[in-house]
Task: inverse folding
């Protein structure tokens, strides 16, 4: 009886021990499974975090690329705008230089024309003064010759000139036939002086007309040259 109780007790202890071992194994297995699940969850979370970090990094790279591209476009626009401004400044400077050259050329042309006109006027004045002196001298000489001629007339010659009964042609013919050689020379000299004065007056008038025509031609040439320059520009 005692042996039976011992055997039952031993069997119970073995069963309890087996149950404990089984529970421990089951508990360990559950814990291990739980740990594996947690580890897997952690791995998944880690993978998600890595994926998220990769996405963020990718977004950052894209944003950086977009920013760089934007900066490049802005820099390109700035360079293009700068080039346009430089080209505009160069064009304005070129136009200013051309305008300055044209003004200088115009001033030089005007100065040359003024100098030429001044020289021409001086020559003209000198020539007029010389002509006036010559005319004055010739007039004085003519007056002297006329007085000398009149003083040399005889009473008969004066009578011919004052004769109202003779026709003009007869009076002229008779008077010319009555002249001495000296009187003829004085009369001829007066006629030559008179003809010389007429020729000088005619030449002076022609010279004035020639100068006027030359100045008009220079003005027309200057206008045509300016039109050609404007057309070429």
Result:
């Amino acid at each position: 009886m005692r042996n039976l109780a011992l055997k039952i007790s031993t069997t119970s202890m073995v069963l309890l021990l087996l149950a404990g071992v089984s529970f421990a194994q089951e508990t360990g297995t559950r814990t291990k499974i739980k740990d594996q699940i947690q580890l897997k969850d952690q791995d998944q979370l880690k993978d998600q975090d890595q994926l998220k970090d990769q996405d963020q990094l990718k977004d950052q790279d894209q944003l950086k690329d977009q920013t760089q591209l934007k900066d490049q476009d802005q820099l390109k626009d700035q360079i293009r705008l700068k080039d346009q401004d430089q080209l505009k400044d160069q064009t304005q400077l070129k136009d200013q230089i051309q305008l300055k050259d044209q003004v200088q050329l115009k001033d030089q042309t005007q100065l040359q024309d003024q100098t030429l006109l001044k020289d021409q006027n001086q020559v003209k004045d000198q020539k007029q003064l010389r002509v006036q002196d010559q005319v004055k001298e010739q007039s004085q000489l003519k007056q002297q010759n006329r007085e000398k001629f009149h003083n040399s007339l005889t009473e008969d010659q004066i009578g011919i000139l004052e004769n109202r009964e003779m026709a003009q042609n007869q009076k002229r013919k008779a008077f010319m036939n009555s002249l001495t050689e000296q009187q003829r020379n004085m009369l001829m000299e007066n006629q030559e002086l008179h003809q010389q004065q007429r020729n000088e007056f005619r030449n002076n008038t022609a010279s004035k007309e020639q100068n006027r025509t030359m100045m008009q031609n220079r003005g027309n040439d200057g206008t045509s040259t300016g039109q050609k320059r404007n057309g070429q520009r």
